[in-house]
Write a structure and sequence with these properties.
This protein is an all-alpha fold and about 210 residues long. It has 9 helices and no strands.
């Protein structure tokens, strides 16, 4: 008995580079394997950079990123606004960083913590990367950041090291705009006082935008 041949078609994954964030979000929510890979490729670099700036450690930043994306992929189906994929991911990053910073403060040896690899910091003159002699000053600056409460530190990092707007920081922190403003004001005031008590740091950071 003759049977007509059914047409055979191949389903080819789209080129992820051609997809918008909302389109990628829909694919991620559907559990597409290529979407998981593209989400990591697209968003891991900014998450790692945020973690480096927040923690001052490259090794710890990589660990944070792994934890963040494990949570993102496990909770992808709960995303209700595909057009806010970036905010969805950064909200997980903030939660993981907050937990890590709280754990740091709870450890008795916090005051002696030295970041393994310090993030790049641009000097005011010409915007050139810092020289080796300035690395000690940068360690001292991160030592001051360690004295801030986790929420104060994260708001400061988002606003002044990540250059986010107050509205963006509030969205990622899942806080009201007024709360973010209050936290930032307190963090900036404390850091300014501490920096002024260290002549070396005061000179190194002279003219920094957050101190104006």
């Amino acid at each position: 008995m003759h049977r007509p041949h059914a047409p055979v078609s191949l389903v080819v994954a789209p080129d992820p580079r051609d997809l918008s964030d909302p389109e990628l979000a829909h694919a991620l929510m559907a559990g597409r394997a290529w979407a998981i890979s593209e989400t990591w490729h697209r968003f891991a670099p900014p998450v790692i950079m945020l973690a480096r700036r927040a923690l001052g450690s490259e090794a710890e930043a990589d660990d944070v990123a792994q934890e963040v994306f494990q949570r993102v992929f496990a909770k992808a189906r709960t995303l209700r606004a595909p057009d806010r994929l970036r905010s969805f991911i950064f909200s997980f990053a903030i939660r993981v960083l907050k937990t890590e910073l709280r754990a740091r403060r709870a450890r008795a040896w916090l005051s002696f913590h030295q970041p393994e690899t310090l993030v790049e910091f641009r000097a005011q003159a010409g915007g050139a990367p810092i020289d080796m002699e300035s690395r000690d000053l940068l360690r001292r600056f991160y030592g001051l950041l360690d004295r801030l409460a986790p929420r104060h530190r994260l708001v400061f990092v988002l606003r002044h090291l990540e250059s986010m707007t107050l509205e963006e920081a509030a969205a990622h922190m899942e806080l009201s705009l007024s709360t973010v403003k209050r936290l930032l004001e307190r963090a900036t005031a404390k850091l300014s006082r501490w920096v002024e008590s260290d002549p070396g740091l005061a000179g190194f950071l002279d003219g920094a935008r957050w101190r104006r």
